[in-house]
TrEMBL record:
Keyword Repeat: yes
Protein name: Protein phosphatase 1 regulatory subunit 42-like
Keywords, sorted A to Z: Leucine-rich repeat, Repeat
Gene name of this polypeptide: LOC108741455
InterPro entries: Leu-rich_rpt (IPR001611), Leu-rich_rpt_4 (IPR025875), LRR_dom_sf (IPR032675), SDS22/Internalin_LRR (IPR050836)
Keyword Repeat appears in the UniProt entry: yes
SMART domains hit by this protein: LRR_SD22
Basic and acidic residues composition bias: residue spans: 15-29
Record CDD domains: PPP1R42
Chain residue ranges for the region called Disordered: 1-29
Domain of life of the source: Eukaryota
Pfam families on file: LRR_4
Amino acid sequence: MLKSKAKSGNPTEGETLKDEYSDVKNEKKPSHLYYQDKKKLRINEELSYKQLTHLYLHNNQIEKIENLDGAIHLKELYLHNNKIKKICNLECLVYLRRLHLGHNEICVVEGLGNLRNLEELYIEKQRLRESDSMCFDPRSIFGIRQSLRVLNCCRNNIMDISNLAPLTGLRFLDVSQNDLSNIQEVCDVLRNFFLLENLNVSKNPISKLHKYRESLIGCTTNVKLLDNKLVNDLTRVFIKRMEHETSKKRSEPTINLPKALEDVSKNYPEGLQKSITRSILEKGRKNLSDSVKDAVVGCGDATGDVFLPMKKFPKPKGSLVKKRMKFFKFNTRKMGPIVEEKSQSHIQNVVFVRKVKTTSSLQ
C-alpha cells in the first residue's frame, strides 16, 4: 500500500516525507520506503522507524541531507539526482551498506567517517563547474577503508587519486572521464589494490599515452576487466615478466667509459670509444672517482682485455666497396693458395731467364 501510494497521485509542492509515514502509522511499519520522483521533497521531521532498511529519495529536489538519525538500521539510501551540495548528517547510519549520491552538486567527499559497514559508494557525475575538482577527505576515506568494495566517481574533474590509497579492499573502481594526467601516480595507488577486478580509467589524459594499458595491467594483480575490455591471463604474465626484466636491467650498475676516461678520443665512432683495453683502465684508474673505480675493479680479470665485437665495427658503404670486399674475400678464401703458387713460379722463371742471358753475353 505504501509503495503504490508513494508513486500515485500528483505531489503537492513542499510535500514532506513525514506526512507519508503519518498516513500509515496504524499499519505494519515498512522496511522499504519508495518516495522518488517527487518534484519538491523535504525531510522536515526525524524518521523514527527502526525497521526501515531501504529508503528511495532519488529524482527529487532535496538540497540537504537531514533528519535521518532515527533510521538507525538503514542499509541502502538512494539520494541521486537531487541538489545536494554537502554530505552531512549520516553519522548515525552505522549499518549503511549502499549509498547513492550521483548527479548532485557535491565537490568534497566527506562525512563518511562513521560508516564502518559501507560497501558501495556511487558519487558519479556531479554537476560541477569546470574550474572545480572533486577531492576526498582523508578522514572519510580512512573510516571506510576496510569495508568499501565498490567506488564509482566518474566524470568529476578529479586530478589526483592519491587519497584513495587506503581503500585496499576495492573490487570495482571507476574513475573514467576525469583529469588524471600522471600515470606514475595512478600506478602507485593501484599497486595496493590486490583485490581489484574491474577498473575503468578511460577518457582521461593518461589513456592517450603510449602503452598505457600495459602499464595499468603491469601495476595491478587481479584485474580481469580494464576499460570494459577483458584482460587475458597470458597477457598479464607476459607484461609482468617484461617489467621484471626491465627493472632488473635498470638496477644493474652501468658506466660510460668514454666519458670517464680522458684518453679516449672523441673523434672516434661511438663503438670504437667503448673498445678500451684493461691496460688503459688501469693507467687511468688513479684519476677516476671512487664510484668509477669500484665499477672498474668489478669488470673482471686484471689481465683481460675488453675488445669491441665485430658487429660494432663500422661497415663499408657503397656498391663499389662491397664488390671489392666480396672479391677480396673470394680470392683470400678460395684462390689464395693458387695465386701464391703462380706468383712464386713466375719469380723463378724470371730469375732463370736472367741467368741465361748473362751467361750468353759472357760467351
